Amino acid sequence: MTSKGGKSTMGLGAMEREAHAWVRRLTSGDATVEDADAFQVWREQSAAHATAFAKASQLWETVGSAGHNLRYDPASLGVLLDGEARRVMTRRLVLGGGLATAAAAVGAVTLRPPLELWPSWSELAADYRTGTGEQRKLALNDSVSINLDTRTSIALRPDHGDSSRIELITGQASIATTPQQSRPVTVIASSGQAVATQASFDVRYLGAEVRVTCLGGEVRVEHQGNARTVRERQQIAYDERRMSDIVAIDPAVESAWQEGLLVFRYTPLPKVVEEVNRYRSGRIFIVNAGLNAHLINGRFHIDRIDEVLVQLEQAFGVKAKTLPGGIVLLS
Q: What is the C-alpha R_g of the chain?
C-alpha cells in the first residue's frame, strides 16, 4: 500500500497513514486554508484521530528526516513504527547514546533538520546553546562578553597563538570587548572567521550565509584567502563560495534584538516571517503568494512576538489560521 506521495506505508493502520499524511501536508509549505479546514474536520472526528496526529507529529519531531533527500517519510522508519521496536527507539533517544543506533536503522540523520524544528547533531554538542525565544549573556573572560540570540549554539575552541577562539555553529551572537582587551578574539563561522581586538560586532550564521556586522571599532573578516576590514556601521556577508561587498547598515535595526526587540523597516513580508519564526515555537507559513509584496514597518517585543500577526491582520487584512503545534497559515 502506498501513500499519496508514493511511499510505502506498509504496517500502518488507516488512521495512522492519514495522520502522517496530514503532518507531511501541513509542514510542506504548500498548505492552504482549505487544507487547514479539512484537517480540523478530520482531527475532530474522534479522540483517536487527535491522538494519531499527535503521535505522528511527535515521531517526526523526535526522529527527523531519514536520508539526505527526504523531508518526511514515516515508511522509511519501517519496523520502528511498530510496538516494541518503537518503545526501544524512544528509550534509546531519551538515553542519548543510542541515537546513532536509531539512525543506522533508518538511514543517515540530516545535519540540518527540516524547518529547524529540533536541534541538529552539531548543535547538541555545543558548549552553550539557547532555545527558541531564549537569549543569554556570557563572559568569555574579564574583557570579552558574548550575547547569544535565540536558537544559537557556540563552541569554545582552543586558543590559536594569542587569539581566543569561538565557533558559531548556528544562530546569532554579539561580541563586545573592553578597552583593556589586548588579545584578538576570533569567531569562526562556516568557511570564514571574524577577528577583532577592541570592537563590538555581531555574527549571524543562518542557512548557508554568514553576516558580520561591526557596531563599534573594526573587524577583520577572513574568507578562503581573502580578507576585508569592516568598520563601525558596516556589514559584510559570505557563504561557501564568495564574500560580498561591504554595505552600510543601521545599528538600531541590526542590534535591536539585544534590547529584546525586532525592528522592521520596509521589510518584505517573507523576510519578516522568516525572522519571526526564529523566536516562536511552531511555524508560520504564507499560503497566499499575493501577500509577499507587503512591506512591513514596526517594532515588536520578542517576548510578545505574536503581536506581529495582530498587526498583519489589522493593517493588511491578512487572515491567520492557527493549527495545533504552533502552525499558522497566512492568507
A: 22
CA 317 – CA 331 distance, rounded (Å): 9
Contact between 261 and 300 under an 8 Å Cβ cutoff? The reply is yes
| 33-43 helix and 47-63 helix, angle to the nearest 10 degrees | 120
Cell of 234: 558596516
**Nearest CA among 260, 263, 269 for reference residue 250:** 263
- Read off φ and ψ for residue 126, nearest 5 degrees: -70, 155
Task: Please count the residues of the chain.
Answer: 331
| Bridge partners, 42 (sequence order) | none
φ/ψ of residue 56, rounded to 5: -65, -40
Q: Is 71 helix (H, G, I), strand (E, B) or coil?
A: coil
Buried b (16+ CB within 10 A) or exposed e, 283-314: bbbbbeeebeebebebebebeebeebbeebee
- Global pTM exceeds 0.85: no
Domains of the chain, CATH where assigned = 14-118 (no CATH), 124-254 (2.60.120.1440), 260-330 (3.55.50.30)
Distance in angstroms (rounded) separating the CA atoms of residues 75 and 8: 6
Task: Give Cα separations from 303 to 104, 156, 187, 276 (angstroms).
Answer: 39, 28, 28, 11
Which residue type sits at 22? W
| Tens-digit pLDDT string for the chain (331 aa) | 344 444 344 457 888 888 888 877 776 656 666 777 788 788 778 878 877 887 776 666 544 433 333 344 444 444 334 443 344 334 333 333 333 433 333 333 334 444 455 555 455 568 899 999 999 999 988 899 999 999 999 999 888 777 889 999 999 999 999 988 889 999 999 999 999 999 999 999 998 999 999 999 999 999 999 999 999 999 999 999 999 999 999 999 999 999 999 999 999 999 999 999 999 988 899 988 889 999 999 999 999 999 999 999 988 889 998 888 888 999 8
- Please identify which residue in the block is written with the cell numbers 582587551: 181
